[in-house]
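Moderator note: this is an archived Q&A kept for reference. The question asked for a predicted structure of one protein chain; the sequence and the answer are reproduced below.
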Amino acid sequence: RAPIDAMLALASASRASASHAMSRTARAPLDRSRARAPSSSSVFTRRSSASRSTTHVVRAASDERVETHAFFSPSKINLFLRITARRPDGFHDLASLFHVIDLGDDMTFAKSSSETKDTLICNDPTIPTDSSNLVIKALDLFRAKTGVRQYFWIELDKKVPHGAGLGGGSGNAATTLFAANKLCGSPATEAELLEWSGEIGSDISVFFSKGAAYCTGRGEIVEDVEPPLDLATKMLLVKPPMGCSTPAIFKALDLDGRSKADPLELLKRIGVDGCSETVCINDLEAPAFTVLPELAELKERLKAATADKKTVVFMSGSGSTIVIVGDDDVPAFVARDDALFKAPTRLITRKPGEWYAPTLRRA
């Protein structure tokens, strides 16, 4: 009887030689670099890039079947971000309008036969797959809070850049909590998942909103709000090759140089008038531009290149992603620069009990 982890790792390794398996099963050789067993060949049904949670089957030669479940793992932007105070514990209080977006990673989950550890596989070799990864931290948190002893096999297909201010890792953690809860029969409520998530990260909680959320505290206090913009609003994300270190950005923050705008007034104005330069304030832009002067230059070039389209341009989170709201055409200078990450995106929401799904088709 072949171990589940080996079968799933085999299925992942076999995809490259099984492009025809979308409509039918294919026999694939064992890749010993990613699987310990079985020695015989295995058969699997390739998962599609489905936007919602989908279930597929991995079948070993022994005819043992293992369900795999695919989930979309979204990211976020901050439509405005005010830093309201420095806390005694060294963290900062914030008031921010977060919105989930449809740029995201693909994650696949299955229950593992292991009784001692989770197995995380990632396509990006720079991403750690040990207990320092928020995915593993989320699973440890889930077991500690629910008493469930189940371990998991997870495949993470990264598309969201890190050091971007997009909360890609936080989205992975939230998706993991949601998926583990679903696969284990929902022993926790979504309200409990939201509450627990603040113990391992500040931005994770926002993903348990309906998609648009006014967040305070360290970001873990989440209040659902109506989407302030039409979900079809065109947006473009542009990120330079260098990322921003969040601790470095906060270290460079001058509290006396912050905006004085009332965040509740910003929330009201964006709901009535939409995005504008006076509303889409980010108190972390100034320190980010001090740490990375190239980022300030990129923002100004993007503003100039899209000015005739009445766009609004601002940095998300602690950077280094610049968001263009109002257009998703790639400016010529951006298109010519292969070092720049660029991706169109849209705002997305979800219904309670369901997870997020992307709206744009991506290669």
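Archived answer notes: DSSP finds nine helices and 13 strands in the chain.
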